[in-house]
């Protein structure tokens, strides 16, 4: 099985590392793929893809069974559903898509979201104990497509972006060094 963890990773935090380590231990995938959104993704404050990719590689210490994919950096962007299709064909293994509660609730705004739900399996990261209820309420036909993994995580990339000095403890030291070296996020 392959796990694909999508997101902006702007920047990758200790929470992302905790999710990665927890899922590696729990699922023991043959491959763990980080799928950062491309630079063209319409998200405020999104730094260049090359930096987010480099920071993810630092965060995972270049573990051989980890790939930081650049598929969403290459136009045209056809959505996560297309990336998952690609990985299923390329690796010929089942794929589970990892997403947080914020993305879970935003799925109806995604490209081909109905096909995404119908044809894929998911791992929902639950920070506050409400993911199962949200899945049942919003996606009752697909509730069996979701595993829920509860983690007590308070770290958020958005907090770091607002005040990098105050929230620098949310970032792994080597990633923080990279941020300072490249003067990212106003530091």
UniProtKB/TrEMBL annotation:
Gene Ontology molecular functions: nucleotidyltransferase activity
CDD domains named among the record's database cross-references: NMNAT
Enzyme class, UniProt record, top EC level: transferase
Pathways per UniProt: Cofactor biosynthesis; NAD(+) biosynthesis; deamido-NAD(+) from nicotinate D-ribonucleotide: step 1/1
Every Cytidyltransferase-like domain range: 4-138
Entry superkingdom: Bacteria
Reaction(s) catalysed by this chain's protein: nicotinate beta-D-ribonucleotide + ATP + H(+) = deamido-NAD(+) + diphosphate
EC numbers on record: 2.7.7.18
Keyword vocabulary terms for this entry: ATP-binding, NAD, Nucleotide-binding, Nucleotidyltransferase, Pyridine nucleotide biosynthesis, Transferase
Pfam family, one: CTP_transf_like
Purpose of the protein: Catalyzes the reversible adenylation of nicotinate mononucleotide (NaMN) to nicotinic acid adenine dinucleotide (NaAD).
Protein name according to UniProt: nicotinate-nucleotide adenylyltransferase
Organism: Paracholeplasma vituli
């Amino acid at each position: 099985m392959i796990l694909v963890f999508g997101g902006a990773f702007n920047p990758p935090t200790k929470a992302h590392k905790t999710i990665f380590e927890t899922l590696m231990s729990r699922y023991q995938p043959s491959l763990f793929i980080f799928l950062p959104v491309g630079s063209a993704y319409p998200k405020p404050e999104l730094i260049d893809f090359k930096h987010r990719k480099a920071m993810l590689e630092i965060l995972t210490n270049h573990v051989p069974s980890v790939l930081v994919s650049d598929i969403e950096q290459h136009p045209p962007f056809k959505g996560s559903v297309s990336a998952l299709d690609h990985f299923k064909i390329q690796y010929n293994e089942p794929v589970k898509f990892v997403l947080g509660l914020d993305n879970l609730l935003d799925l109806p705004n995604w490209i081909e979201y109905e096909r995404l739900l119908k044809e894929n399996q998911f791992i929902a990261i639950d920070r506050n104990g409400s993911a199962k209820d949200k899945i049942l309420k919003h996606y009752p036909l697909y509730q069996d497509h979701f595993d829920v993994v509860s983690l007590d995580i308070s770290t958020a990339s958005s907090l770091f972006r607002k005040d990098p000095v105050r929230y620098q403890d949310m970032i792994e030291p080597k990633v923080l060094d990279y941020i300072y070296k490249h003067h990212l996020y106003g530091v």
